[in-house]
Input
Amino acid sequence: MERISTIAAISSAQASAGISVIRISGSEAIMIADKVFQSKSGKHLSEMKGYTCMLGAAYDCGDRIDECIATVFREPHSYTGENVVELSCHGGVYITARVLRAVYNAGAEAAQAGEFTKRAFLNGKLDLIEAESVMDLISSRSKASLRAALQVKEGALSRRINAVKDNLLDRAAHLNAWADYPEEDIPAVEDNSLREALKTAKTELTDILHDYDNGRVLKDGIDTVIAGKPNVGKSTLMNLLAGYDKSIVTSIAGTTRDIVEESVSLGDIVLNLSDTAGIRETKDEIESIGVNKAKTRAGSAALLLCVFDASSPLSDDDRDIIAMAKDVPAVAILNKSDLPRGLDDSIIRESFNEIVSMSAKFDDSAETLIGAIKRVCAVGDINSASTLIYNERQRTLTQKSVNSISEAIETLHIGLTLDAVTVLIEEAIEYLCELTGESVTDEVIDKVFHQFCVGK
Ligand code: GDP
Output
């Protein structure tokens, strides 16, 4: 049998910080840590129970490196399911690297990207869906995406998938038993009840697939373009949303010539904002490059924030912006509400479902705007969806399973043999097993975990 090595890595961020954590996992973790760590009390880690910690110091070949705390986890009650020791030392990049080197010198091997979580998966601590959600947890940038990743991590999606799979397994078992043991007293397979069961499974998986786009919005953010003619307050709005000055705000028209990008987290949602050059007719060659870029970007946006100057009359450039917003989810912002009103907004009211009057310069918050954005992007609905699928691997396998079930329903419908239906149901089950990681090839496992960072 292949010997499973004991691995180590820095599990905290590689930057100066209050503390850093060096994680060691494997059957020899405690023995290796004992070579590096000397407790103040003189007690050895090997004498300690799981879930306990001790104060002491880390040493490399007799040289004291730093004071640290060692926490012991005994198998199977650890993140990986193996013996684990976590050494928490002061967070300097140099200190952390030295402690890690000492751990390597004592016999640990360098952990590969995602290897701790991979071991947790291989030891049955997590299924593959839950393991993938660990990565989503780490990279969560908004409350809603964190909440959704946590739900998946705690098994909400796996439970839904497993319920479908168990129902299909019952049906497949019955079909097989009936076909293989005709002499036994096994109740006949009823076409109608089988069809109903298959339809229910298909509906449940299709519902899960529907949530995929919502999951992507939570995870990756909404590609948002701030559009408007020059000087309406686009950069000021961007700065209000981003919370600090990023683009140069000036009162000379046409100064934001290129595209400024910023990812901002607004509570439940993340907007990937592009503040573009003011869109207007121009003869200035450089400006017109910016204007064209802005138009292209606006055309591919998932959300347009169309800014108008409420203190001046609607112009032809404004009408261009209104036309651009026709086919894209959009919010109209009537900016400069602090100034006397000069805008007749009747055309805007006809063209936009969501209109927000505000002063990007003087308002302290953008709550009303955020509310309108959530309505336009239907983000409110996302929060209730607790079991989102997040990645392409999960989506493809769920879709393949739905396809097999659809084929099984069709096969039943045209009256082919139940053998053919059984094969298709088993195929649908196989895809679901691959999804949760119950039956999955080593290549797929490696691919999933390689997307992780080292130390997780
Ligand atoms: P952009 O060209 O659309 O990006 O416009 P800027 O954000 O650069 O703003 C142009 C000018 O309008 C600047 O002088 C801003 O201070 C001013 N401005 C922006 N928003 C407001 C607002 O809500 N009220 C007032 N009074 N001025 C604003």
In short: The first strand starts at residue 7 and ends at 10.
